[in-house]
Structure formats: C-alpha cells, structure tokens
From TrEMBL:
<keyword id="KW-0813">Transport</keyword>
<dbReference type="Pfam" id="PF13458">
    <property type="entry name" value="Peripla_BP_6"/>
</dbReference>
<keyword id="KW-0732">Signal</keyword>
<feature type="domain" description="Leucine-binding protein">
    <location>
        <begin position="25"/>
        <end position="337"/>
    </location>
</feature>
<dbReference type="InterPro" id="IPR028081">
    <property type="entry name" value="Leu-bd"/>
</dbReference>
<protein>
    <submittedName>
        <fullName>Amino acid ABC transporter substrate-binding protein</fullName>
    </submittedName>
</protein>
<dbReference type="InterPro" id="IPR051010">
    <property type="entry name" value="BCAA_transport"/>
</dbReference>
<feature type="signal peptide">
    <location>
        <begin position="1"/>
        <end position="23"/>
    </location>
</feature>
<dbReference type="InterPro" id="IPR028082">
    <property type="entry name" value="Peripla_BP_I"/>
</dbReference>
<keyword id="KW-0029">Amino-acid transport</keyword>
<comment type="similarity">
    <text>Belongs to the leucine-binding protein family.</text>
</comment>
<dbReference type="GO" id="GO:0006865">
    <property type="term" value="P:amino acid transport"/>
</dbReference>
Length: 400
C-alpha cells in the first residue's frame, strides 16, 4: 500500500472552462487556489497548465483526436473549500485527472474527500508539506515539487554556513507552515544552531505584534518566516520592519515572488534570504522558456514550470493509458515519467504521441527538474536561494 499525506494560487482570465461532457472532450480538473493567501501565484500557474493543454490540442489532440479541456474549481488554500471543489470535479464534472491542489491542506482535503475514493490521479505543483507523502492514497497522489523535507534542511544549512547560529521562527498554522518549520528546526539544531522561539501564527489578523514581541523577547535578531507573502507572513514582515525588530529575515517559497518588493521599501529588506525549488537547467527548461515567451507568460514565475509539467504529464499518462478512464492512469503516469525511455521535452506532444502509438517507451524531462516519481509519488530536486540586494531579488543559485 502506498502511503502519502499532503500539505499544501488567479484570476483565470485565460482558463478554458469545460462545457458539459461531450464524447470529443477529455477533462483535467484544475483544483486551484484562485482565492486565499497564495492567490497571487495562481494566474501564472493556471496559465501554464492551460499552455500545456493548448500544446496538446494544437498537435492533434489527445487519444483519437479528442480535445483536452480544463475545468477550474477554487480550493482557496483551505481544506473546507477544497473538499466541495474536488467533489465537483470528481463526481459532477467527471474529470479524468486533477492538476492540484496548490496549498498542502487543500490537496490533502481534496484527495481524502474525493480523489482517492473516486480513483482519480492528482499531481500537485506546489504542495510541499511532508504530510503529502504520508497519505494512504492507493498511488493516486503525486507532486512534481521538491518537498519541504528538502527545502527546510537546505535553508538551515545555508544560514549555518553564513554564520547564523540563533534564530527566531514563525510559521503559518497549517500543514505547509508546520511541516517546513519542523524540517528547518530539526536540521538547524542538529547543525549546532539554536531556535530561540518558534511561534505559530494564524492568517487573517490585523495585529501580529504579540507574536513578534514574543520572538524578540527571546533575544532573536534573525527571523525566519514560513508563511504567505500576501497573508500573515507578509503582515508579520511589514510589522517587524516597522518596529525595527530584527536585523535579518529569511522566508520560504510562500514568501517568494514578485509581490515581495511591489509594496515594500526594498532598502528595508536588504539582505533578506528566500528559498525555493530550483528549476532545471538545459533543454527542457529552454523548451518551456520558448513556449511561455511565445504565449506571453513568464517561465520564471512561482511554480510555473511545475504547473506546466504537471498538466503535460497528466496528458501523456492519459495517452499512454489509451483512454479517458481513471483506471490504470497512475501506472501509466509512472511509465511516462520515469526512466528508461526516449526523452520528451515540454511541447513535444506530436513526438510523444507517435512514440506511444508505436509502443516505444518515453521519459518526460521536466522544465522543473528531473521527474522520477518515488514510491510515495515524490520527486527529488535542488533548492535555490535568493537575496534582496540593491532593490531587487537576486538569484544566488543552488544551495550546495
């Protein structure tokens, strides 16, 4: 029995909404956090998923020439909203597979409530919480994003290597925040560091001075924030800067993105460190970069590469499975994602379709990195770090 548990962003102006079920359509559900704390990431992610669908349809369609379509359901980065949203996709829209969720808690709720009982494969591009890997999911829940068990460890190693041995922490009180904070704290302490305070916070508050004061009172001059930039994490950052409480800030992927400096004085954040999964370098990334540029999209947007890869993988798996039925799809997904096989790059749908028809094994090479699903549906990967320098967020490359 495969075990996995989950934790885990869009004015979907370009979203293709599926019409009532027609024989010539194959549906992929988009369980997307269009509203909620990571809504700022969602437009780029949804657009990337729909770009993958457009690439399929522009090169002959799926299976016997059917049109691949997307059906959007807002999971709002909330388990309470994700449950009904996933139920609609699985039981009313009768989707073949699901792209999403984004937030870990939404992914877990959607999986447990509808996807797993309905035998529907899910690929999350953003649910990084360790709990995702613990779901009892019958090999149905996958993710093509590096889990927090890697990001947290690498972030801790980076601070220690820079001579930071004491930190205060705050994390959003959900699967994502607690999982990432736990991985960081364990690695930081194991490496000789001290966590002076580790305080949970709830999104949606106006005043975070009590949490900030508790951490500051413990003597911390470095604050690690594992939350969301346009929710509690961003508010804590703003209020801490206003109070002059800390000398250095660090944030995870939930704090990354263009919005970080959009409404803040960059000089106040000089030296702030951010960590995020690193995209691949080489032919796969270059191929997607060309596709996104032609479509007016930004390949460097948060989780854009992961989102394109997830939807293209699902399309390849459906083609490999030979039908729009749900049965057998997870096995087909592993076949097209994992080596060996002839390499397929982003956008190479016609090539893949021809090889599959000929009975030739294929191996999709993701723009987000190597996609080799392990026993729990996870992928390995590397972590980049970024530093706010001179008014910009500068990519410093891999954390070695």
């Amino acid at each position: 029995m495969f075990k996995k548990s989950l934790t885990l962003a869009v004015a979907a102006s370009t979203l293709v909404i599926a019409a009532p079920a027609l024989a010539q359509e194959v549906k992929i559900g988009f369980l997307a956090d269009v509203t909620g704390p990571i809504a700022g990431f969602a437009p780029g992610m949804v657009d990337a998923g729909n770009l993958a669908i457009a690439n399929v349809n522009d090169q002959g369609g799926i299976l016997d020439g059917q049109t691949l379509t997307s059906v959007l359901a807002d999971s709002a980065c909330d388990g309470g909203a994700a449950g009904p949203a996933a139920d609609r996709l699985v039981n009313a829209e009768n989707v073949t597979a699901i792209f999403g969720g984004y937030c870990s808690g939404a992914t877990i709720a959607g999986a447990n409530g509808s996807a797993i009982p309905g035998n529907v494969v899910m690929i999350s591009p953003a649910s990084t919480a360790p709990a995702v890997a613990e779901l009892d999911d019958n090999d149905l829940v996958f993710r093509d994003v590096v889990p927090d068990s890697i990001q947290g460890v690498k972030a801790a190693e980076l601070l220690l290597a820079q001579g930071v041995t004491e930190v205060g922490m705050t994390y959003v009180n959900n699967d994502y925040g607690s999982g990432l904070a736990g991985a960081f704290e364990e690695a930081f302490v194991a490496g000789g560091g001290t966590v002076l305070a580790n305080v949970a916070h709830e999104d949606g508050k106006a005043d975070y001075r009590p949490e900030i004061g508790q951490i500051e009172a413990a003597g911390a001059t470095t604050l690690v924030i594992y939350g969301y930039e346009n929710a509690g994490g961003g508010a804590i950052l703003n209020q801490a800067v206003e109070a002059g409480s800390f000398d250095l800030f660090m944030g995870g992927d939930g704090m990354a993105g263009e919005a970080l400096l959009a409404s803040r004085n960059a000089a106040d954040l000089e030296g702030m460190i951010l960590t995020q999964a690193a995209p691949a370098e080489g032919p796969a990334f270059d191929a997607l970069s060309a596709l996104t540029e032609a479509a007016g999209q930004d390949v460097n947007g948060t989780y854009v590469t992961n989102s394109y890869d997830a939807v293209f993988l699902l399309a390849l798996a459906i083609e490999k499975n030979g039908s729009a039925e749900r049965e057998g799809l997870s096995a087909a997904l592993r076949e097209i994602a994992n080596a060996p096989g002839e390499t397929i790059l982003p956008g190479e749908w016609a090539k893949a379709k021809e090889l599959i028809a000929a009975g030739t094994d294929i191996n999709y090479e993701g723009a987000s990195g190597a996609i080799e699903f392990d026993d729990v549906g996870d992928v390995a990967g590397a972590i980049n770090y970024f530093v706010v320098e001179g008014g910009a967020v500068v990519n410093k490359g891999l954390i070695e």
